[in-house]
Amino acid sequence: MKCVAVSDIHLREVRTPPADLLIVSGDMTMKGTPEEMSWFANWLDRQPAKHKVWTAGNHEIGIEETPDLATRIAFETDSIYLNDSEVEIEGVRIWGSPITPAFYNWAFNRARGPEIRKHWNKIPAGIDILITHGPPYGYHDLNRQAEHVGCEELTDVVMNALRKPPRFHVFGHIHLGYGRSIARRKDHQTFEMINASSCNERYQPVNEPIEFTV
């Protein structure tokens, strides 16, 4: 299955190449208002992918306040919205979550520690693609002050707690972290970390969609 991943498009006309699966890992808008979500629906509908899976991000305030917005967009675009949930497409298991560590009271924020851990404990072992809006701590998560701002609990789950890690972990949120790398666990299992942020710190869509094959 050919996959294309983007994140943090922020109402920009990002173009994606043809694929079997398009993944959008949040921050499609600025506030997730009905008008912005309609823009996203139009954008998503025009992308040349057979299947489309997405989750929200901290900018999608309107979706957290009115979950039916996401349901409607998914229906209108024949896509799949994931919110601490899983879907299987052509034998590929995908799990997604919009949750990120608390930061200035944006959408889908949870306190670091036990509160956010409750969400990551729902991730099943052995999935093919894990989609989270934010990065795990220490992986493509450096901000402009060169500080790691990813989620420590998420790192512990994917690197230690899961019996079998995902084959690919796709996220965004930290625009400067765009890129991909191989993570190696203590038990020698490996998987790929992918920060698919489309926009840079100035909200310019300068980063190419990231392609991979499952």
Average pLDDT figure: 97
Can you write the helix and strand succession as a string? Answer: EEHEHHEEEEEHEHEEEE
CATH topology name: Purple Acid Phosphatase, chain A, domain 2
Q: Based on helices, strands and strand pairing, what is the structural class? A: alpha/beta
Question: How much of the sequence is in beta strands?
Answer: 25-35%
Number of domain modules: 1
Top-tier CATH class: Alpha Beta
Q: What are the key terms here?
A:
Purple Acid Phosphatase, chain A, domain 2; 214 residues; alpha/beta
Characterise this structure.
The strands form three sheets. The protein has a six-stranded mixed β-sheet with strand order 5-6-9-10-12-11, with no helix packed on it. Strands 4-3-2-1-13 form a five-stranded mixed β-sheet, with helices on one face. A two-stranded parallel ribbon has the order 7-8. It has five helices and 13 strands. The longest helix has 13 residues, at 34-46. The termini are close together. It has helices at residues 34-46, 61-65, 68-77, 114-120, 152-161; strands spanning 2-6, 19-25, 49-55, 80-81, 85-89, 92-97, 100-101, 109-110, 129-132, 168-171, 179-184, 190-195, 210-213. With 214 residues, the protein is of the alpha/beta class. It has one domain: 4-Layer Sandwich (Purple Acid Phosphatase, chain A, domain 2), CATH 3.60.21.10. It is 21% helix and 28% strand.
